[in-house]
Fold this protein.
Amino acid sequence: MLDGELISMENVVFRSYIWWCGVLTLKMFAMSILTGLWRFIKATFANPEDLMSPKLKVKFDDPDVERVRRAHRNDLENILPFFIIGLLYTLTNPSTFLAVNLFRAVGISRIVHTLVYAVVVVPQPARALAFFVALGSTAYMALQVVAAAF
């Protein structure tokens, strides 16, 4: 495939990459909404101007709110690198089967990670397995990008 064709809607790998980027972006937006929802439910606000009553105080230690915030931070630490590496990996003209399934692995495992960490808390190793599937897939793509650069 010619370089100009790698980033086009005719390229199945690129189409899969942008689809999963869109899904994961929506997922991160949902985490923002979930954090706000938990703050409202638990009356746990981080800013004085958000307090809905003079009886409330700024609070940073609600375990439910903090769990969702940690899950969201984990998304930022892991999904954003995938956005960069996934695009660079697309430019290496990888096997369609492998690339599409790596993108799926990252996307599905990040969704599962959120579900077992912040929505319905499931004991380990569920969260660790979801985390390492995405990390391993992204690391593999990064190694392929580095290898392709030489």
User: Anything to note?
Assistant: The radius of gyration is 19 Å. Residues 3-148 form a domain with the Four Helix Bundle (Hemerythrin (Met), subunit A) fold (CATH 1.20.120.550).
